[in-house]
Amino acid sequence: MVAIIKTGHSIYKVFYYNENKVKEGVAECIGAGNYPIDVDKMSDTIKLNRFLKQLELNENVKRNSVHISLNFHSTEDHSKEKLMAIADTYMEKIGFGEQPYLVYQHHDSGHPHLHLVSINVERDGKRIDMQNIGRNQSEPARKEIEELFGLVKAQGRVNNQDFELQPIISGKVHYGRNESKKAIANVLAQVLSSYKYTSLPELNAVLQQYNVLTDRGNENSRMFKTKGLMYRILDENGKPIGVPIKASLFYNKPILKFLEGKFASNTSGQISDVRRVKNAIDMAFLRTEISLTQMVQLLEKDGIITVFRKNAEGLLYGITYVDHTTKCVFNGSKLGKQYSAKAIQKRCKSITPVEQKMGSSDSEKSQGITSQTTHSKINTTSFGDDFQNNKSVGSDLVMGQLLNILTQSEQAANYVPYQLKGKKKKRRGKPNNQ
């Protein structure tokens, strides 16, 4: 189970977000906590007024709405009774057992999940401190509930596969098939809180997998100068299509200021996350010759998507790796010089002119290379399984190389990280006695 807690300034928005889902037929209110009557006998007014009356006890609390999602593995199918028991237990363990709350079961994504709506003002008017509640209360509660109810664990699963939420709306947004704002909002809800990105290009590397792009506009535009932000849908060729939507119009307000806060708080992942991507890249180069397209395909099988950035002339200048298993995003240069776009091109022994130019011919499209970036299908097959099934990589020599890779922090024989290089001492010339 994965728990995500968000706070906001308006209980109205949180409440009607879930109630509108009910009206659309993609959610249902399955229960409530600390309400005077059963939920099926309450009108919308009764549900909302219970929150509003208690909030009047402390009008100084401005950030007073609490919106929690409890996400379960796609293989789990729990009854409403069990889901309510999980919700009640969770709220009790995080200190909200005496608070009024509503429980909604949503059916609009690839995994089962609940939305819990509550407030952080108690019956005596005191404010519930929300700082560090995720780490101090929610995380221990999640682990206890997983054991208590026999849920799929969010960490430590068999074969070292981490818990992974399925992409919303089967992954990609298709213009014209979905209501644009709703489709983008669903993708943002999935990506913004799950992935670790530290810049706008890194965030876009993830969003583009779902045919979504965030755009600040031209540097000389009014939007750019006023720090505005738009979200757009991309077509199958990676080109923007339809009318862009202002970031401020979305429920969770994913404006530039919000994203900059995420950039600052996100980390690039632990050393093991970085090493996983590096090892996967180096494993791909175990073959004597490999093309850029083949490298992309091999990384894809390990759950790592490669996104290329190119200039107006179509020349490759940047590369970003999106690891859908650890939810980490890395620019190539962040991993080290040998993983940058320039170094990767040099390491590829057989780069065709088509790959080098990164155009938009039919042969490129068949490999997922578009005029904007490379879009690969999301695939989290482990490399270990693929390695066993790949007969062309089965020699003793390759196995020896593989063991070397797994036991070394860096894989290139002549490569020494910059941080480990000692400073060269300048030789003093011998004094000229002549």
Model description:
The chain is of the alpha+beta class and 434 residues long. The protein is 35% helix and 16% strand. It has 16 helices and eleven strands. The strands form three sheets. Strands 1-3-5-4-2 form a five-stranded antiparallel β-sheet, with helices on both faces. Strands 6-7-8 form a three-stranded antiparallel β-sheet. It has a three-stranded antiparallel β-sheet with strand order 9-10-11, sandwiched between helices. Helix 1 runs antiparallel to helix 2 and helix 3 packs antiparallel against helix 4 (133-149). The longest helix has 17 residues, at 133-149. The chain is globular. Residues 156-170 and 350-421 have low confidence and may be disordered.
Mean pLDDT across residues: 78
Count of helical regions: 16
Strand content: 15-25%
Low-confidence stretches: 156-170, 350-421
What is the CATH first-level class name of the largest domain?
A: Alpha Beta
Q: Which bin fits the share of residues in helices?
A: 25-40%
CATH topology of the largest domain: BirA Bifunctional Protein, domain 2
Strands across the major sheet, in which order? 1-3-5-4-2
Distance between the termini: 81 Å
Q: Helices and strands, in N-to-C order? A: EHEHEHEEHHHEHEEHHHEEEHHHHHH
Rg from Cα:
25 Å
